[in-house]
Design goal:
Blueprint lengths: L3 H8 L12 E2 L2 E2 L26 E5 L12 E9 L2 E8 L10 E5 L8 H8 L2 E3 L6 E3 L9 E6 L8 E2 L6 H17 L11 E7 L1 H20 L10 E9 L3 H13 L9 H12 L4 H9 L4 H16 L6 E2 L2 E5 L9 H4 L2 H7 L10 H10 L7 H9 L3 E7 L7 H10 L5 H6 L3 E5 L2 E9 L2 E6 L18 H11 L8
The chain binds 2-acetamido-2-deoxy-beta-D-glucopyranose (NAG) (9 copies).
Length: 487
């Protein structure tokens, strides 16, 4: 069994990049441990807590992070079972919360905490560079939406309990259960009829489409009486720097490492070696294809291991995989651990489990099923065609989910808007007249490549634009049910 002690031992081999969201083992990004034939069942709670299955446990207005007077916040757990507690942190919108939509934010991994998004990217506060504290964020996404940061699956971040999730589909069902509990709570039931959005990044290229499609199926099942529950009023989906369709994504590593807006990442002979690994018989392309073609968990898991060992990892060269303008490791964004793993702070916010950025047991459960290499593009197509306004975005300085691969995925989409999308050229996207990226809209679908941004798009600045300024304009436009436009 892959238990915590083994995971700790494996941490020694992790590449040094800080602020990591995509797990690595033995120096390989997204590696698969050879000793991973069983699913871990590990209770991560260190404090005996009174769990309340089917209910929330809530600490209100802790004063942590959001300091705007009168803006309500709440943090705590939704106990989806006696041994499964999902951590959430809710912030009311700073502006017009009674009319604002409700957004859930999910970071990736798999196994990484959504406190990354809250404290490094677009929460009401951001970590200082020395990780000792936080500062007010003027470009917080709760300027325009009520927002709910969720640590999932169970075991991730401050969440704790039995680890029994190894696929995006299973994760969707648990988050749906959590939301049922959230909306049943008298403090939050008023939000059930607000427009609902899922925003996510990184492994969220799987989570976002899978969760959205699952929520739509559940809504249909509620509507026809085959299950009981509260419908989720899903209207918007945002996927940043996401892993959605690996067969489209992996050639992107070859392209981006050779040529990107900044500098080549490795030598041409390294590119050539990995190109051979991609295209040779039985190589990465064939293995992903076998996974897509009804492949078993072992087939998909083997594809993940092969492609990440021979393509994703070596082609990063000496650069930070999340931000190629820096050599590895980039000290930015700052590590949340010193700030969050603090018993005084944890008592204020109602957290009962030590925080770490990534739970490697959860990661390993996903690696065992090969979920990484499965194709979430069909779910994304379903969601777009069902009328959910959707944006895919990507920072042009991110290698690990680079824009070459993401734009190939977008180009391969087969939706009612795809012809219109693919016939267009990109248009410059400006924020208050400042260049910020290039974009296309078609129907209720949009894509934007954001200049100067690494993997965690909202954490970066560009030109005369402040950190997170371009990301907030994107978020505001989409959440206002508008296509992207320049200002
Ligand atoms: C994997 O298992 C083998 C055989 O039990 C053991 O020798 C090796 O140390 C294990 N490796 C890891 C990374 O746990
Ligand atoms: C967690 O709860 C489920 C359902 O109640 C049960 O089947 C399972 O054995 C429990 N796991 C642990 C580790 O207690
Ligand atoms: C924090 O670090 C980033 C990246 O190195 C740097 O651009 C920024 O100026 C630093 N912020 C402060 C307040 O020093
Ligand atoms: C965010 O909302 C606050 C509160 O209304 C406001 O003071 C601030 O200017 C807003 N930020 C931006 C970038 O609009
Ligand atoms: C109800 O809707 C669900 C979800 O679309 C579907 O799977 C199920 O077959 C439907 N049941 C009936 C009785 O129509
Ligand atoms: C822990 O958090 C408390 C409350 O926010 C703070 O006063 C204290 O300085 C923190 N301790 C450390 C070591 O950062
Ligand atoms: C968090 O704090 C606990 C208790 O001080 C410590 O045992 C644990 O190693 C810390 N975790 C991390 C990731 O620093
Ligand atoms: C787009 O911006 C670039 C510089 O950022 C400029 O060279 C180009 O002319 C612009 N294109 C249009 C159509 O405005
Ligand atoms: C968003 O706009 C589209 C058309 O542009 C419309 O069909 C849809 O109902 C709107 N959604 C919301 C939540 O207002």
């Amino acid at each position: 069994m892959f238990v915590t002690a083994a995971a700790t031992a494996l941490l020694v081999g992790i590449p040094a990049a800080l602020g990591g969201q995509v797990p690595a083992l033995d120096g390989v990004w997204g590696a698969v441990s050879s000793n991973s034939s069983q699913r871990a069942i590990v209770a991560t709670s260190t404090v005996p807590a009174v769990v309340t299955p089917g209910k929330l446990r809530v600490a209100e207005n802790s004063g942590v992070c959001e300091t705007t007077p009168g803006v309500y916040q709440a943090s705590g757990y939704g106990d989806i079972a006696s041994n499964e507690s999902i951590w959430f942190w809710f912030f009311e919108s700073r502006n017009g919360p009674d009319n604002a939509p409700l957004t859930i934010w999910l970071n990736g991994g798999p196994g990484s905490s959504s406190m990354i998004g809250l404290f490094q990217e677009h929460g009401p506060c951001r970590l200082t560079n020395d990780s000792s504290g936080v500062t007010y964020n003027d470009y917080s996404w709760n300027n325009v939406s009520n927002i709910l940061y969720i640590d999932q699956p169970v075991g991730v971040g401050f969440s704790y309990g039995t680890l029994d999730i190894g696929t995006s589909q299973e994760a969707a069902a648990d988050v749906w259960s959590f939301l049922q509990i959230f909306f049943a709570d008298s403090r939050f039931s008023k939000y059930q009829e607000h427009d609902f959005a899922i925003w996510t990044e990184s492994y969220g290229g799987h989570y976002g489409p899978t969760f959205a499609a699952y929520f739509l199926v559940q809504n249909a099942a509620i509507a026809n009486g085959s299950i009981s529950g509260l419908p989720i009023n899903l209207k918007f989906l945002g996927v940043g720097d996401g892993l959605t369709d690996p067969l489209s994504q992996y050639p992107g590593y070859l392209e981006y490492a050779a040529s990107n807006p900044y500098h080549p990442l490795v030598s041409t002979s390294d590119i050539q070696d990995s190109t051979t690994r991609w295209q040779e018989s039985g190589g990465c392309k064939d293995q992903i294809t076998a996974c897509y073609d009804g492949g078993s968990d072992d087939t998909c898991s083997a594809a993940q291991s092969y492609c990440n060992s021979y393509i994703l990892s070596p082609l990063a060269g000496n650069y930070d995989v999340y931000y190629v303008l820096s050599e590895d490791p980039d000290a930015y964004p700052p590590d949340p651990t010193p700030y969050l793993n603090n018993s005084t702070l944890m008592a204020l916010i109602g957290a009962e489990s030590d925080w770490s950025e990534t739970n490697y047991d959860v990661y390993q459960n996903f690696a065992d099923t090969g979920d990484w290499m499965r194709n979430s593009r069909p779910d994304l197509e379903t969601v777009i065609d069902s009328g959910v306004r959707t944006i895919v975005f990507d920072g042009d300085a991110d290698y690990i989910l680079n824009f070459d691969g993401v734009e190939a995925m977008v180009k391969n989409l087969q939706t009612k808007f795809s012809n219109e999308f693919n016939q267009q050229q990109f248009t410059n996207w400006t924020v208050h007249g400042e260049p910020a990226g290039i974009y296309k809209n078609a129907g209720t679908f949009s894509y934007v490549r954001i200049f100067g941004a690494g993997h965690e798009v909202a954490a970066y600045e560009y030109g005369n634009l402040a950190r997170g300024e371009a990301a907030l304009q994107m978020f505001s436009q989409i959440m206002g049910n508008q296509s992207l436009f320049s200002t």
